[in-house]
C-alpha cells in the first residue's frame, strides 16, 4: 500500500471522528490546557541543524520569560530518536538544583566539541592504504562507539529515565526480540524494569547499524529479576518520532493516566501544539538510482561510498511516512497551524552524511539551520513527498516566535490555575 492509500485511509478515519466533534473549534485552547510536543529526528552529526533551531527557540522563550527559561519548561513531551534522543536526554536531565543541566546552545556546542571524537575522521588515502581498516569497516561497525558511550555516561551523570524534568519518549529496537522498545518517562515511573539509565537509553537509540555496535544492558525488576535489552538505533523503526509521541499521549489520555485527562481522545490533534525538527535529507539530490543499485550485492547495500544505502533508505522512508500521516491528520482537522515541521530536503555533499564531523562540515550544517530559520514555512506535499512553501504563514523563525508566545501563555495559564 502506497503513501497515497495510507493518506486516504487516514482521511476516512478522521472524517468519522469529526462527526463526533463537530462542535469543537479548530484551536479552542480556552476551555482547558493543550498538550505541547517537541519531536527530534535522528541524523548523527546533522543534529547540529536541530540544535541551531532549538537555540533560536530557547532564546525567544528567554526574551519572553527571562534568562532562566529552558526548553524543558514548555513541552509536556520531548521525543527523540538517535541523535534526537541524545538531545532529548540532554534537554531534560536535571542538575543538582532540579533545573535543566544544559541549555539548547550547550547542546550545539556539544556537537562541535565531541562529534569529531564520536566520529573520528580518517583521510581517504589513509583509509585506502590501511587494508585492515578497510576490512574492519566492511565486516564490523565503522566506529567502536567507546567515546560515545563514555561521554554519554559523563554528561548524563547517572540519572535515570524517571528523573527527567518533562516526559521523554525515545524509540529503540531490540534485535533479540525483533521489536521496537520505546522508553518513556511515564513507563519508567510505573514499571521499575523500564527505568533505565538515561545514558543507556541515549547510547542505544544512537547505535546506528554499520556505524556503531548494538548496546546491551540490563535492568532489575521489583522482584529482583533482570530484564535484558539488546538494542540498536530507534531510526530503524521511527526515525521521525512525532507519530510515536502523538500515539503515546493519546494512549495515556485513553487510560486516564495523562495529566490532561480532561482532553477528549478524539480531540487530541486539535488540542496539541507540535514542533517537529528534522535533521535534513538529500531527497532532491537523487543520490541513488535503479541503474546503479541493480549491480549492487549485499555489501553494496550495506556500505557504499562511505554510507549505508539500506540504513539511509529505511530511516528516510520512516521519517517521510510519519510526516505524511501527521500532516494529513492536522490538515484534515483544520488545525495545520498547530503542527510545525522544519526540515531541509535538499542537503548536498558532506552535509548529507551522518558522520562527517569536520569543522568545515559542522559549520556548514549550522549554516543550514540558520538558513532554515529564514525560509518560509513549508509542508510536505502528500503526492510528491517534497516540501512546499505555505503562503501566509511567514518564515520558520516567525512561526517559532508564534509558538514561543503560545508556549509561554500556556505555561503561565497553568501556573495560575
Automatic annotation (TrEMBL):
<dbReference type="Pfam" id="PF01734">
    <property type="entry name" value="Patatin"/>
</dbReference>
<feature type="short sequence motif" description="GXGXXG">
    <location>
        <begin position="42"/>
        <end position="47"/>
    </location>
</feature>
<feature type="signal peptide">
    <location>
        <begin position="1"/>
        <end position="24"/>
    </location>
</feature>
<keyword id="KW-0442">Lipid degradation</keyword>
<feature type="active site" description="Nucleophile">
    <location>
        <position position="82"/>
    </location>
</feature>
<feature type="short sequence motif" description="DGA/G">
    <location>
        <begin position="233"/>
        <end position="235"/>
    </location>
</feature>
<dbReference type="InterPro" id="IPR002641">
    <property type="entry name" value="PNPLA_dom"/>
</dbReference>
<protein>
    <recommendedName>
        <fullName>Patatin</fullName>
        <ecNumber>3.1.1.-</ecNumber>
    </recommendedName>
</protein>
<dbReference type="GO" id="GO:0006952">
    <property type="term" value="P:defense response"/>
</dbReference>
<dbReference type="InterPro" id="IPR016035">
    <property type="entry name" value="Acyl_Trfase/lysoPLipase"/>
</dbReference>
<feature type="short sequence motif" description="GXSXG">
    <location>
        <begin position="80"/>
        <end position="84"/>
    </location>
</feature>
<dbReference type="GO" id="GO:0047372">
    <property type="term" value="F:monoacylglycerol lipase activity"/>
</dbReference>
<dbReference type="GO" id="GO:0004620">
    <property type="term" value="F:phospholipase activity"/>
</dbReference>
<feature type="domain" description="PNPLA">
    <location>
        <begin position="38"/>
        <end position="246"/>
    </location>
</feature>
<dbReference type="GO" id="GO:0016042">
    <property type="term" value="P:lipid catabolic process"/>
</dbReference>
<keyword id="KW-0732">Signal</keyword>
<comment type="function">
    <text>Lipolytic acyl hydrolase (LAH).</text>
</comment>
<comment type="similarity">
    <text>Belongs to the patatin family.</text>
</comment>
<keyword id="KW-0443">Lipid metabolism</keyword>
<keyword id="KW-0611">Plant defense</keyword>
<keyword id="KW-0378">Hydrolase</keyword>
<feature type="active site" description="Proton acceptor">
    <location>
        <position position="233"/>
    </location>
</feature>
Amino acid at each position: 500500500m502506497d503513501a497515497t492509500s495510507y493518506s486516504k485511509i487516514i482521511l476516512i478515519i478522521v472524517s468519522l471522528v469529526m462527526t463526533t466533534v463537530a462542535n469543537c473549534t479548530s484551536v479552542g485552547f480556552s476551555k482547558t490546557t493543550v498538550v505541547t510536543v517537541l519531536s527530534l529526528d535522528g541524523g548523527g552529526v546533522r543534529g547540529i541543524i536541530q540544535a541551531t533551531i532549538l537555540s533560536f527557540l530557547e532564546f525567544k522563550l528567554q526574551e519572553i520569560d527571562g534568562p532562566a527559561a529552558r526548553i524543558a519548561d514548555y513541552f509536556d513531551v520531548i521525543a527523540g530518536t538517535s541523535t534526537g534522543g541524545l538531545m532529548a536526554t540532554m534537554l531534560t536531565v536535571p542538575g543538582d538544583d532540579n533545573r535543566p543541566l544544559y541549555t539548547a546552545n550547550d547542546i550545539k556546542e556539544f556537537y562541535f566539541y565531541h562529534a569529531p571524537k564520536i566520529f573520528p575522521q580518517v583521510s581517504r588515502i589513509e583509509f585506502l592504504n590501511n587494508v585492515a581498516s578497510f576490512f574492519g569497516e566492511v565486516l564490523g561497525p565503522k566506529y567502536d562507539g567507546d567515546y560515545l558511550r563514555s561521554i554519554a555516561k559523563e554528561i548524563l551523570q547517572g540519572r535515570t529515565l524517571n528523573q527527567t524534568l518533562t516526559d521523554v519518549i525515545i524509540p529503540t529496537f531490540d534485535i533479540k526480540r525483533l521489536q521496537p522498545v520505546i522508553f518513556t518517562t511515564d513507563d519508567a515511573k510505573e514499571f521499575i524494569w523500564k527505568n533505565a539509565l538515561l545514558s543507556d537509553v541515549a547510547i542505544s537509540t544512537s547505535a546506528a547499524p554499520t556505524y556503531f555496535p548494538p548496546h546491551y544492558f540490563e535492568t532489575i525488576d521489583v522482584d529482583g529479576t533482570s530484564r535484558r535489552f539488546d538494542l540498536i538505533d530507534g531510526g530503524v523503526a521511527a526515525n521521525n518520532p512525532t507519530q510515536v509521541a502523538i500515539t503515546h499521549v493519546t494512549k495515556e489520555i485513553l487510560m486516564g493516566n495523562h495529566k490532561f485527562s480532561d482532553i477528549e481522545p478524539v480531540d487530541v490533534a486539535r488540542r496539541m501544539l507540535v514542533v517537529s525538527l528534522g535533521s535534513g535529507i538529500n531527497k532532491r539530490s537523487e543520490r541513488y538510482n535503479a541503474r546503479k543499485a541493480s549491480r549492487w550485492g549485499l555489501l553494496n547495500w550495506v556500505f557504499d561510498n562511505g554510507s549505508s544505502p539500506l540504513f539511509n533508505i529505511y530511516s528516510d522512508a520512516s521519517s517521510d511516512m510519519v510526516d505524511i500521516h501527521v500532516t494529513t491528520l492536522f490538515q484534515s482537522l483544520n488545525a495545520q497551524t498547530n503542527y510545525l515541521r522544519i526540515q531541509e530536503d535538499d542537503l548536498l555533499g558532506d552535509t548529507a552524511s551522518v558522520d562527517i564531523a569536520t569543522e568545515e562540515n559542522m559549520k556548514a550544517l549550522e549554516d543550514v539551520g540558520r538558513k532554515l530559520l529564514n525560509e518560509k514555512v513549508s509542508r510536505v506535499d502528500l503526492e510528491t513527498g517534497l516540501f512546499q512553501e505555505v503562503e501566509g504563514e511567514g518564515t520558520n523563525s516567525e512561526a517559532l516566535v508564534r509558538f514561543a508566545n503560545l508556549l509561554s501563555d500556556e505555561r503561565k495559564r497553568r501556573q495560575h490555575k
